[in-house]
Design goal:
This protein has 326 residues and is an alpha+beta fold. The chain has 3 domains: 112 residues, Rossmann fold; 152 residues, D-amino Acid Aminotransferase, Chain A, domain 1, CATH 3.30.470.20; 56 residues, Dna Ligase, domain 1 (2-Layer Sandwich). It is 27% helix and 27% strand. The chain has 9 helices and 16 strands. A hairpin with a 5-residue loop joins strand 15 and strand 16. Helix 1 crosses helix 9. The longest helix has 19 residues. The radius of gyration is 21 Å and the shape is globular. The two termini are 35 Å apart.
């Protein structure tokens, strides 16, 4: 039995469900929006982890669960709980259920994509950069400061620089321009992360087990995710990585304790590979839709305990789908 936990209509979860159907695998959605009729009761001792999960009219023996894909949204934001007081019974039930499910996923012997504890490195980009560097991938020159004078000196040294979030909270990566310089004194209230702008090609590498799916990204904007919104364009294509770099990505993912990761690289004109971060819960569907890479199928195979050969992503072939980002 495999559990897919989250909102079933969320594209990555839906795509993995479709891939599990193709494998003929037995799975169930743990639909957060049906939390009112859900219950979980489990225990852990020297004999292992046991208990039950009830979703509506069905009760699942947790000892039969061999895999779980965890893409839970913040239960406090569920539409079904909107407008309810913090101490409303529906809210307290939802919180208790999600807390118990979360703790089960941390100790279950099942293949979990991904457990929460190893995802913690993404909560501090500076800390994660140190882990990345140990695997032979270059972190960009970085400054974290609330001192405007230090930023000016960093800009003088590196020329074009960008700034972005230090935490796991998504932010739009932007180049530090003249308009920003006019309000630079505001960083005195909160340290900001600045990095040298690295020339070259952005690459998103999805790693699941031993499988590696590199995507080359050509964009008119610094942050390709928002290029279309800002009047630009982005094109994606499936490519290959040198075996050494692919192997480093696999080892980095495994050493971080992750089964599935989205690794952001940049290949410079000189052939150097810089690494910006490792996303422990990648929304891979955008990349699969634009390249045809079978990422969902690889996730499904991993959850089902099937062997993962490391497929070589072919260079963009005629007829492969390529779209603007949106």
């Amino acid at each position: 039995m495999i559990l897919l936990a989250g909102i079933p209509s969320e594209t990555p979860l839906e795509m993995v469900g479709t891939a599990l159907d193709a494998l003929g695998a037995d799975y169930r959605f743990v639909n957060q929006r049906h939390v009112a009729t859900a219950a979980i009761d489990w225990t852990s001792d020297e004999t292992g982890v046991s208990g039950t999960l009830r979703m509506g009219d069905e009760t699942i023996d947790l000892a039969t669960v061999s895999g779980a894909y965890m893409r839970l949204m913040d239960d406090r934001m569920l539409p079904e709980l909107e407008g309810l007081a913090p101490d409303d019974p529906a809210r307290t039930h939802a919180r208790a259920f999600h807390e118990a499910l979360f703790r089960w996923s941390e100790v279950s012997p099942a293949r979990v994509v991904n457990r929460a504890e190893p995802q913690g490195s993404n909560g501090s980009k500076p800390y994660q950069a140190q882990l990345i560097a140990r695997h032979g991938l270059l972190p960009p020159p970085t400054l974290i400061t609330n001192d405007p004078a230090a930023v000016l000196a960093f800009r003088e040294e590196h020329g074009t620089i960008i700034y972005k979030s230090i935490s796991a909270v998504r932010s739009i990566v932007k180049t530090l321009d003249d308009e920003d310089m006019g309000r630079l004194e505001r960083i005195g209230w909160c340290p900001v992360q600045f990095q040298a702008a690295i020339p070259g090609t952005n690459i998103r590498v999805h790693v699941i087990g031993e499988a590696v799916f590199p995507t080359w990204i050509e964009s008119t904007h610094v942050d390709y995710r928002y290029a279309k919104r800002q009047g630009g364009s982005t094109e994606l294509s499936a490519h290959e990585l040198p075996e050494e770099i692919a192997a480093r990505c696999v080892k980095l993912t495994a050493d971080l304790g992750l089964a599935f990761a989205g690794i952001d690289l940049k290949l410079t004109p000189d052939g150097d590979y810089y690494c910006f971060e490792v996303n422990p819960s990648p929304a891979f569907s955008y990349f699969e839709a634009n390249t045809g890479q079978p990422i969902a199928a690889a996730v499904a195979r991993y959850l089902a305990g099937m062997d993962q050969a490391r497929p070589k992503a072919r260079r963009a072939a005629a007829g492969k789908k390529r779209k603007a980002a949106g």
